[in-house]
Write a structure and sequence with these properties.
By secondary structure, this protein is mainly α. It is built from 23 helices and no strands. Helix content is 82%, strand content 0%. Helix 2 crosses helix 7.
């Protein structure tokens, strides 16, 4: 077996180098803080803008996602891969050259992306989704693309040097600004819009046909206020990364003098585009799944409502507020809003493993560049094993506690069962979705960035087909989108793992990697659900009691999961060596016979 301690000492000079797991945990800790801040943003925002406003919010995000991916997704990956490859070979002048070559290139793309979303938004709102109220949120989000492009260069540069701290800090800064500015903007827009309509019968110079139309317009403006916080957060985060870049990167003058001469900016730009284009194309296709949901689901639900309104309403007895029953044209957006509320919670699990994918890219790239198959296989297995250890209990637990978590975070409203049903399926889908991110990163690391792009159209076709079929069934309706997501990622993850084994020429057994974490996670989910029922006998009657009940259930599930991992000996010694004080932890567990 390859000794990971020796792996990570080799070629890791310069900068603030971190092991794969250390960097992943640093990013995960930052992401956890970001998600807590995000919950503090999204949950109150939902209460300000309602389900309709959340639908508008996610319509903007769904259109913005593919454009944003075009502008940023491939950039940090391309920069990180070139930087890590050059650093592993001691080509420090090339490391610096990558950043200088990338900045003007990606800045131009950012300007183009911002212009594209601004110009295309009116057509998209009128023609595709049929809701002109979404225009305000989409335009408010456009500047975020420009800021993100510049920030992506800095993030990719430091990630390639295996220093994940700038990325983690910048994400926290972005989330804090989004919280303050977004919630403040949403509240101000809602209050000012309501006051203007009460005083003059007009909102933004427009005269709504009825009080109901006025209410929808005010909610959409409040959603735009929330979206403005996203753009401001991206701007401040980029400012932090620029200031951080002025402090240096740990590459000394002696290292630069002792390194070979750089290849030249033109060659660096060609290599950047060669990596960027397939990665960005893949990310666009992946984000297109959200665009498919935003555009397609509402139209499909509208057709179902026209064809069989009684069947649709019978599938959601007592779950739809009276205001939406009086305005059936808003019902598809309402149901889509319920689904996106579940989607927000589902995305927590892939967000965790996104950190593992970011940290895995430079670690695997260096092993691939050095041509060491033993080191490569060990690092790949470690990435997949550790990812499964983190994401499997999170996804299964989310599915097991879908109802309690939904009620706790979004309140005990009429519509919570719709969101909880979708979350139950999405929790299971999150297991496969979480694994697909590091698999895609490792394919990029071994020079096969084209494979995820080739697999994604088939995965999206599966999602579209399942959506089209199931969403037309009144008893299923919006749950068809969750089922489509599950089928999509099951196929994608299995196909990516098969391709990775062939592309890298290493053996990666799914049974050896995933069976023990999955078994422990299933027991964890059962334990959490059982604990929730038992705690209900002593904790009930208030929101605080419900919070303690859910928290106690999560803690019980976590303890059972950890016990399952130790009993099944699912934790590898080499993985522990990559942690701070990992050797001490490994010795302690080894003495007890747990590893």
């Amino acid at each position: 077996m390859v000794d990971v301690r020796k792996q990570h000492r080799a070629g890791d000079r310069g900068g603030n180098r971190q092991s794969f797991l250390y960097g992943a945990l640093l990013l995960t800790a930052g992401m956890a803080v970001v998600k807590v801040i995000g919950a503090l943003f999204k949950v109150p925002l939902q209460r300000v803008v309602g389900e309709y406003g959340m639908g508008v919010f996610h319509v903007a995000y769904s259109f913005y996602g593919p454009v944003f991916s075009l502008a940023t997704a491939g950039f940090p990956v391309a920069v990180s891969r070139l930087v890590s490859e050059s650093a592993s070979l001691g080509r420090w002048n090339d490391v610096r050259l990558v950043r200088r070559a990338a900045m003007p290139l990606f800045l131009g793309v950012g300007v183009g992306g911002m212009a594209l979303i601004t110009l295309a938004a009116p057509w998209y709102c009128r023609t595709v989704i049929g809701d002109p109220n979404a225009l305000y949120a989409m335009v408010a989000l456009a500047p975020a693309i420009l800021f993100a492009c510049v920030g992506a260069v800095y993030r990719g540069y430091y990630e390639g040097l295996r220093d994940m701290a700038p990325t983690a800090v910048s994400q926290i800064v972005e989330a804090l600004v989004k919280l303050v500015v977004g919630l403040g903007g949403a509240l101000a827009a809602a209050q000012l819009g309501e006051a203007a309509y009460a005083r003059t019968g007009r909102v933004l110079g427009l005269a709504p046909a009825s009080p109901g139309d006025a209410s929808l317009l005010v909610l959409s403006l409040a959603a735009a206020g929330g979206v403005a916080g996203v753009a401001c957060g991206a701007g401040v985060s980029t400012l932090y990364l620029w200031l951080r870049g002025r402090r240096g990167d740990g590459i000394t003058l002696a290292m630069l003098r002792g390194a070979p001469r750089p290849a030249g900016k033109k060659a660096a730009r060609r290599r950047l585009w060669k990596i960027t284009l397939p990665v960005a194309a893949g990310s666009i296709l992946l984000n297109a799944a959200g665009l498919v949901d935003a555009a397609f689901l509402q139209g499909r639900l509208a057709a179902l409502l026209e064809r069989d309104p009684q069947g649709l309403l019978a599938a959601c007895p007592g779950m739809i507020p009276e205001a939406y029953l009086r305005q059936p044209q808003a019902l598809p957006t309402f149901l889509y809003g319920c689904y996106t509320m579940a989607l927000t919670l589902y995305l927590l699990v892939p967000a965790i493993t996104q950190a593992f994918g970011v940290s895995a890219l430079p670690a695997v790239t260096q092993a691939w560049a050095r041509g060491n198959k033993g080191e490569l296989a060990a690092r790949m297995a470690s990435v997949l094993r550790v990812t499964a250890l983190f994401c499997f209990p999170a996804g299964v637990g989310l599915s097991a506690l879908a109802g309690p978590v939904t009620r706790l975070l979004y309140g005990d409203s009429q519509s919570w069962p719709i969101t909880a049903r979708a979350l139950g399926l999405l929790g299971l889908a999150s297991l496969a979705a979480a694994m697909s991110t590091p698999l895609s990163s490792m394919l990029q690391a071994v020079g096969r960035a084209d494979l995820p792009v080739k697999l994604l159209p088939a995965a999206l076709a599966i999602k579209l087909g399942v959506n089209w079929w199931l969403c037309a069934i009144p008893q299923v309706n919006i749950l068809g989108a969750a089922a489509g997501t599950l089928c999509c990622y099951l196929f994608l993850t299995a196909a990516q793992l098969w391709c990775l084994r062939r592309a890298a020429g290493v053996e990666l057994s799914p049974v050896k990697l995933f069976a023990k974490p999955l078994a422990s996670a299933l027991v964890c989910g059962c334990a959490a659900r059982l604990a929730y029922g038992l705690l209900g006998r002593v904790l009930s009657g208030s929101s605080w009691a419900e919070g303690l009940r859910v928290g106690g259930s999560v803690a019980a599930g976590a303890l059972v999961y950890l016990a399952g991992l130790l009993i099944l000996r699912s934790i590898a010694k080499n993985d522990l060596f990559m942690l701070p004080q990992g050797q001490k932890i490994a010795k302690m567990l080894e003495k007890q016979g747990w590893i």
